[in-house]
Design brief:
alpha+beta, 5-stranded antiparallel β-sheet, 5 strands, globular
Length: 148
């Protein structure tokens, strides 16, 4: 698999087009403003014509936001688009574990992130890694929205 890394955290080389259909990763700082850069990275990697781009961008936003807000960590975003499946992985260095809150636990202004990830993805989960975790989501070709 071809792999690409950004030249600086969260910043692609000027004019760089990320290869499609490949395994591409970029690193981002632990700042809330990096979520926009992570979305831009995913959009450039997937391409604006992908049928599920909007779902992918929401998932990247939510997982990156969780890395910054809850793990208080720098994070990496990995995008792989192969054989009709887009896989998004966000790696952070936090101790916490992702849990989908029950609807009655969701507070005004927050708490819906993993509910959105579950609703928009076909599969999602988390894997423990030394010094942190990877939260991932997979989207098959074609639209999907699940009630959770």
């Amino acid at each position: 698999m071809t792999s690409w890394r950004a030249t600086r955290p969260g910043r692609a080389a000027a004019g760089r087009r990320h290869p499609r259909g490949c395994d591409v990763q970029s690193d981002f700082d632990d700042q809330i403003t990096e979520i926009v850069a992570a979305r831009r990275f995913a959009e450039q990697t997937i391409g604006v014509d992908h049928a599920r781009l909007a779902d992918i961008l929401v998932i990247v936003s939510e997982l990156a936001s969780n890395a910054v807000r809850h793990a208080h960590s720098k994070f990496s975003v990995r995008v792989c688009n192969q054989r009709g499946v887009v896989r998004i992985e966000v790696t952070d260095h936090g101790d916490g574990w992702p849990e989908v809150p029950r609807r009655e636990e969701v507070v005004s202004g927050g708490g819906m992130g993993l509910n959105l990830v579950a609703a928009l993805s076909d599969r999602w989960g988390a894997t423990e890694r030394p010094g942190g975790k990877v939260v991932w989501a997979e989207l098959d070709d074609g639209p999907a929205l699940r009630v959770v």
